Amino acid sequence: MDNAPNNAATRMAQRFRGFLPVVVDVETGGFNAETDALLEIAVITIGMDNEGFVHPQPAVSAHVDPFPGANIDPRSLEITGIDPSHPFRGALPERAALDHVFAAVRQALRNSDCQRAILVGHNAAFDLGFLNAAVRRTGHKRNPFHPFSSFDTATLGGLAYGQTVLSKAVLAAGLDFDLREAHSAIYDAERTAQLFCRICNRWRELEQYERDTVGLPFA
Question: What 3-state class would DSSP assign to 60?
């Protein structure tokens, strides 16, 4: 039993070429990462058991104060339900919010023997764009994420289930999705993480089947 965590860490480091998948979801004041406010960010690191199956870890999140001069489109707030001026929102400045979520990612990197995080997102370019823009604005020097590579569950969901919309892909994967909870960073990150793990584990099961039935090599 004492060797189990090391075995799992080794498997994770080997599974994605030294990258650790980390699900990221952001809620924003619009679609332009350079001009529109980052309002929420949630990250979920991905763990692995000794059989090579992956699973989501608990979410780490922050409400974020809009940066000075940030644009906030009222239509975006109607979708997310966020009130940036709410007195009990407990929002952090962008730099502090990044420090908070990056600390959890760096700890997961150490635990998994991985070298760098790779963002997993649904339409990942959107989340990565806002993350990178916040890093540039704050001059953050300890960003654990690869600057341009990502895993996109919209693409993976289309491949595995023929569905590219998050709610439809999650339901097609046999998971639950509550539309009333959607468009919060934590909820969308949790469902994206479950979808990513379901697809990865489905592939792992296929590998096991091929190994057991036709004798193909098994990583």
Answer: strand
